[in-house]
Amino acid sequence: MKKALLMAAALLLAPMAATAADYKEGVHYTVINEGPATSKPEITEFFSFFCGHCYNFSKTVVPKIEKTLPEGVTFNQAHVEFIGREMGTEMSRAFAIAHQLNVEKKIEHAIFTAIHDSKQRFTSQNDIRMLFIANGVDGKDFDAAANSFMVNAQMSKMKRDTENAKLSGVPALVVNGKYRVETGSIKSYDELLDIAYYLTTVDK
C-alpha cells in the first residue's frame, strides 16, 4: 500500500517537474539583468490603471497570487508611466500616494472602476484628489503626501524598474529583478504563475 502511494505521488509530481524543466530562457522568460538577483525572492507586477487587461488581472490573478505566493516570496506592484501620456505619471503618483497612506487596495479598485466601468476621464491631479476624497481620504493628507519625499522616491523607483524591465506592454511580471516572464508562449494565467514561481527558485 505504501509503495502504491509513493508511486501515485511520484506520478502526480512528475508532470510538474517536467513542466518546470521545460521552461526556457528566451521562450518562457528573458534575463533582463546580468547582475545579481534581488537579495530575497520577489515578484513584481507592472501595470497601468489605463490598461483594461491590467484591470482584469487585478480582479482575477492578483488575488490568486496573494493566496498562493510561495513562503518567503514578496509580491510587489509598480505602476508604469508610458500609458496615458502626462496622466500616466499622475497615476503613478496616485498609486504611490495610496501606498504611503495605506489605502492602496481601496484606491486601486476605485481608480480601475472609475476608468473602465464608469468611463470617467482623468485630466488633472485634482481629478485624482477628488477620487481619494470620495473614498475617505482627507484632502490635507493627500496634499501632504503628493509631493513628499517618499512618494517621489517610490515614483522614481517604479520608473527605473520599468526601464530596467524593458517592457513592451502590461500587465507584466518580473521575478527577482532579473527575469521577465514572457506572455507570448503561455496558454493560461496558471502557467504564468507557474513560471513566475519557478523563477523565484532559480537563484537559490
Describe the structure.
Helix 4 (86-100) runs antiparallel to helix 5 (104-116), helix 4 packs parallel to helix 6 (125-134) and helix 4 (86-100) packs across helix 8. Strand 4 and strand 5 (179-181) form a beta hairpin. This protein has 204 residues and is an alpha+beta fold. The protein is built from nine helices and five strands; from the N terminus they run αββααβαααααββα. The radius of gyration is 19 Å and the shape is globular. A five-stranded mixed beta sheet has the order 1-5-4-2-3, with helices on both faces. Mean pLDDT is 90; it is low at 1-18. The protein has helices spanning 2-22, 52-60, 62-68, 86-100, 104-116, 125-134, 139-146, 149-165, 189-199, and strands spanning 29-31, 42-47, 74-79, 172-175, 179-181. The relative contact order is 0.19.
Structural class: alpha+beta
Strand content: 5-15%
Low-pLDDT segments, ≥5 res: 1-18
Total helices: the number is 9
Shape descriptor reads globular
Q: Tell me the span between the first and last alpha carbons.
A: 36 Å
What is the mean pLDDT? 90
